Amino acid sequence: MSFGLVCQQCKEPLQIDHSLVDLAPSAYDMIVATLPSTSDLMHQSRSSNNTKQEHPSASKVAWQSSKGSAKSGVPPLSPRAQGKQAQRSGPLPNESFVILQDSVIRTIPSPTPSQRTKRNTTQSRSNTIDKGRGQSPASTLEQDHANPSPLSHHLRSTARLFNLLSSRTDIDHPLCAECTQILLSNLQKRLDETKKERDGYIAFEKEVRKEKEKEAQGLSKEEAERKIEKLKQEEASYIEQLKEAEREREQLDLELRQLELNEKALEEEEAEFWRTHNEHLLEAEQQASQLASLRAAYATGAATLDKLERTNVYNDAFCIGHDGVFGTINGLRLGRVPGIPVEWAEINAAWGQTLLLLYTIARKLDYTFEHYRLVPMGSFSRIERTTGDKANYELYGSGDLHFGRLLHNRRFDIAMVAFLDCLKHLMEYIKSQDPNIDFPHQISKDKIGDVSVKLQFNQEETWTRSLRHVLLALKICLKWATNGTNG
User: Fold this and answer.
1) Number of Cβ atoms within 10 Å of the Cβ of 97
2) Run means of pLDDT, 10 residues per run, the chain, 487 residues
3) Which Pfam family, an example, fits this chain (predicted)?
4) Distance (Å, whole) CA 473 – CA 466
C-alpha cells in the first residue's frame, strides 16, 4: 500500500515497507532516540548559520552530489533513477522544509461531515501531542492504536515518522530505495574522502609536533653559526652546480642548433640524392628499353642474315631441273626429240641462260678462260675466240631449210664445242681446288660422257642427252662455287 506517498527526491509513488506499516511503539522510540534532539539542532543552527550557508552539511553535500551523479558517472544509475533525477526541479532547502498536504500530492475525495469532525479531532490531538513535550512518542502511538482506523492510523503513523526524520536531518523524507542507495553511495564516498583528509591532517600534525620539539630543544649560538655556515657552503655549491648546469645547457643548445642545421643540410642532400636517383632510374629504364629494342632488332637482323646466308640466290637465278627427257634451266627446255616439238626460240633462250650461268660461275671464282670470251646476250648469245683468227660463233640455231642454214648450224656446232671446252677447263680448275669433287661425265673434245654436243650428223635424242649432261655438270659447278670452300 502506498498511502499516496511520493519520493521527495524523484517524485515517484512509494510502496511503504511492511515493517513501517506495522511499526511497533518500541521500534518508533528506538528510531527517535537515534536522531539528534531539537535543541541540538537549534543550537547548531544559531552557532553556525553563516557557516552552513557557505559550507552545507555532509548529508546535504552528498545529496546534492547525488543529483549530479548522472553527469559524473559515479555511481552508475539505472534508467529509472536517471529519469527520477531529471524530474527534480531544484535543490532541497538548506534550513527549512515544507510538509505537503495529501491534497497537493493527489486528489482526495471530500470527507463526510462525520469524517471531517473525526479528522479535525485527530489533527487537533496530533498537534497537541507535538506541542506538548511531556508526552512520549510511544504514548502517541498507543492513542493511535486505541482508536484503530486502518487507513488514517497508518497514514498518521508514517507521516509523523517521516516528519520527524525530515525535521531532525537535512534530507526530506520519504525516499525510494534507489534514491536511498544513491545517497548512501555518495555519503560513503564523502566518508572515504573525509578519512583521507583526516589522515593528512594527522600526518601534518605529527610533522608540526616534531618541528616544535626540535625548536624546544634549541641550538647554541656556535652550533647555529656552524649550521648557517654549512648551509651557506651548500648553497654556494648548489649555485655553482646550477651555473655549471646552465653552461652545459647553453653548450647543449648550441650543439642542438648545430645538429638542426646539419639535419636540415642532410635533408636537402637526401632530397637531392633521391631526385638524382630517380633521374638515374628513369635514364636507366630508358636505356634498358633502348637496349631491349636494339637487342630485338639485332636478333631480327641476325635471323634475317642467317636466312639470307642459307639462301642460295644462284639456285633461284639458275634453276636447273628436267622435264621428261629434257634438261631445263629456268623452265626452258634444252634439246629436241622426235614427236615433241620444241621451238628454237625456247632452245636459244635456254642456251642463253646456260652461257650466262657459265659466265657467272667463272666470274664468281675469278677464273678467266684462255682461248674464249663468253658474251651472254639472251637468245642471241655468242662465244668469241681470243686467239688465232678471233672468230665469233653464234650460240643459237635456226630451223630454216636453205643452204645458209647448213653454214649456220656448222657455226652453231663450233660454238657448242667451244662452250664444252670452256666448261672442261672450269671443271679442271674446280678439281684442282677441291680434289674430292666428282663429276659423273668427263669431257673430251666435242663429247661429254659418250655423246657429242654437235647437232649435224647426230640424232636429236643423243644431242638432247648430251645437253642434259652439260646442265648436270654446270649444276655441280654452281653448287661447289656457292656452298664449297669458295662459297
Assistant:
1) 16
2) 72 76 73 70 54 50 53 42 42 41 41 42 41 42 47 68 79 84 91 94 91 72 85 94 95 96 96 96 96 96 89 85 92 90 92 95 92 93 88 82 59 92 94 91 90 87 93 93 63
3) APG6
4) 11
> Taking the alpha carbons of 149, 151, 153, 156 in that order, is the dihedral positive or negative?
negative
Q: Which residues does residue 373 pair with via DSSP β-bridges, in sequence order?
A: 384
Name the residue type at position 354.
Answer: T
Crossing angle of helices 58-67 and 177-217, in 10° steps, is 130
140-162: burial string, b at 16+ Cβ within 10 Å, e else: bbeebeeeeeeebbbbbbbbbbb
Report how far residue 106's alpha carbon sits from residue 6's, in angstroms, rounded to the nearest whole number: 10
Q: Which three cell numbers stand for residue 228?
A: 648557517
Distance of CA 377 to the CA centre of its chain: 80
**Cα diameter, the chain:** 192
How many C-beta atoms lie closer than 10 Å to residue 324's C-beta?
10
Q: How far apart are CA 292 and CA 300, in angstroms?
A: 12
Peptide bond connecting 75 to the previous residue in cis, omega within 30 degrees of 0? yes
- Rounded distance, CA 366 to CA 408, Å? 32
CA distance 286 to 272: 21
Taking the whole predicted model, whether its pTM rises above 0.70 is answered as no
